[in-house]
Amino acid sequence: MSKSKISQSEITETNTSRTMTAAAMALALGSAISIAAVPDVAHAEGMEKCYGVSLAGKNDCAAGPGTTCAGTSTIDYQGNAWTLVPKGTCEETASPTSPTGFGQLEAFEEK
Amino acid sequence: MLPSRAGLGLKPEHFRNILESGPDIGFFEVHAENYMVPGGPMHHYLGKIREHYPLSLHGVGLSIGADAPLDKTHLDALAVLIDRYAPQVFSEHLAWSSHGDFFLNDLLPLPYTATTLNRVCDHIDQVQTHLGCRMLLENPATYLEFSTSTLSETDFISEVIRRTGCGLLLDVNNAYVSCINHHREPGAYIRALPLDRAEQIHLGGFASQADANGDPLLIDSHSAPVAQDVWALYTEVLEQMGPTATLIERDNDIPPFDVLLAEVNLADSYLVEAGGQRE
Amino acid sequence: MSEQTVFASALLDPAQPCPDGLRAWNGSDPNQRFAVYRNNIVVSLIDALAATFPVCQQLVGEAFFRAMARVFVVAQPPRSQILTFYGREFPAFIDTFSPASSVPYLADVARLERLRLDAFHSADVEPLGTEDITGVLSAPPRLPGLRMDIHPSVAVLQSRFAVFSLWAAHQQADPGLARVDPLQPETVLVLRSGLEVQCIDIAEATGVFMDRLIQKETLSQAEQDAKACEPGFDLVAALTLLLRWQIITSLYPGDEHGQLD
User: Fold this and answer.
1) What confidence tens digit (pLDDT) does each residue in C175-202 have?
2) What InterPro entries does this protein map onto (chain B) (predicted)?
């Protein structure tokens, strides 16, 4: 708090043009209130893109689905035996992998 | 008390459908831990659904069978939910799921000895005192037994219920799964439980696998319809107990709502046959 | 060591044999039956992460995601019984997980997905009505020192990567990812409006402005910091965002030095 107060007063004294006056702020808020009162302007301008979220409950009292061995594998998560490379939608992006990525050689060679 | 009707495990996927169609279902049951969040849609929908249906609050994380003290924070969170939603019943499992600082997210088995009996009774006493209500204890589905056990599971549960005054949540599917896994006769197992203290029944589906000897090993997966053998066992149970609130559980591979509703209706028809009344 | 300590440690380490004293009626190897418990724990926790981080899973594919999640589950099992809170440390884990380094934006996408879930379950707090906000206009001198409570669902994620575009592309049947340059910095505002969680692509300076308000800085300070970030910062647009999404829950007017009355 004290830090922000110091920086504020410094700005006010040394560079008044960067500090908004209360009147200008009131004007801005007044404009925002009237703009916000008109529905969907921002949406129409494409400024905001919105998506919902799906509902989920994660706790339950059932056993995990599938086979008894799915949770018991030892090989695929030991660092020295890691053989997987990311193979998802990341391959479709403009720059799918960074040049420094572990395992990226296989990914690039397959393209 | 819950009505002697069939109920359904409430899944978020079905919130809107239930509110829009108002299906004729005796009650809903929720897993308490899914509602231990500050706010948002989970509470919004549960509050609306609670206005129209009785509720069973079913805990999956209290770890009553743990060899460590109960988590007071978790008990407090349960008390908040009970205060907010006034469920007709609260139930938990004869199992443990937390150890040290970690939550292992499974219902793990315990040996049945004088020591574990005392501990489980102490924990249930604490739960009932803290929550100010009786709880129901659910018989577990297990895959292994302990050579250190000195009591049978049914004797252990009977003694817990006698000492603590808690009720029994009879999971017929768990009884069936455990009996197949441990080569016992499910009917005899159920008859050895204090059925006069059972206030609710669970029915669910299991998955079939094999153990190292090739003998059947059933997994309590809640991913399938109730099996024919379990329905048969259920009708026997109803003959002994009379109509008792019965939950259809499905937690994995959740089908469309109508499929679950059909199972609920089937359970309801057995309840009517057993002398229960539909409104 | 207690019986449950031995049991628990064997559950999370498949290299260990199952504990002594476990038996099956037919004398079969108890390890195979013990594996059911191992499976339940590991698979259910991986499933919980997959449900929280669906776009991350799409980005790297299910096989890679689940293998990565398995390493995390075993290294950092949940400490809370409430699984929806599980995975707060997952983005930081991804940052250090070298096999994922070829997808440098993965951790920030995970951060966005985690913020969305937190917003989803955040506390219900009523926003202020328009009259309350219009009311502060009656005393303009008190505006620069105005502080506010922002709705608990609101968070800002400022990223070196196109975290919003990457995430948004996966909300559509045809992601159109070829048009996304992942190396473009983006800032996202996350909030819950009614029952819906929203992600809003905002300018970096607007993100600074929102962040300062969340930190209870004054309107004047927030505006100055946003201008310092981008001289072209549009205060009217930023205020409109606050009002349109109704994320102000309390106002505390102060004087021009930010002192509360």
Assistant:
1) 678 888 999 999 999 999 989 999 999 9
2) MbnB/TglH/ChrH, Xyl_isomerase-like_sf
Residues present in chain B in total: 279
Is residue B279 assigned to a domain?
no
B146 with C44: Cβ contact below 8 A: no
Q: Which chains touch B (3 or more CB pairs under 8 A)?
A: A, C
B105, part of any domain? yes
Judged by CB atoms closer than 8 Å, whether chains meet at B34 and C84 is answered as yes
Inter-chain CB proximity A84 and C32 less than 8 Å: no
Give me the domains of chain C, ranges plus CATH numbers. 1-103 (no CATH), 125-261 (3.90.930)
Closest partner residue to B36 (CB to CB) among C82, C120, C153 is C82
> Mind listing the pLDDT tens digit for each residue in B37-86?
999 999 999 999 999 999 999 999 999 999 999 999 999 999 999 999 99
CA distances from C89 to A77, B237, C68, C78, C189 (A): 18, 47, 13, 10, 20
Q: Where in chain A are the domains? A: 2-42, 80-109
Q: Residue C54 burial by CB count (10 A; 0-12/13-18/19+): exposed, middle or buried?
A: middle
Contacts of B49 in chain A (CB under 8 A): none
- State pTM to two decimals: 0.90
| Residue B1 placed within a domain | no
Instruction: Work out the number of other CB atoms within 10 angstroms of the CB of residue A44.
Output: 10
Domain holding B64, by residue range, is 6-273
Check C217 against A53: CB less than 8 A apart.
no
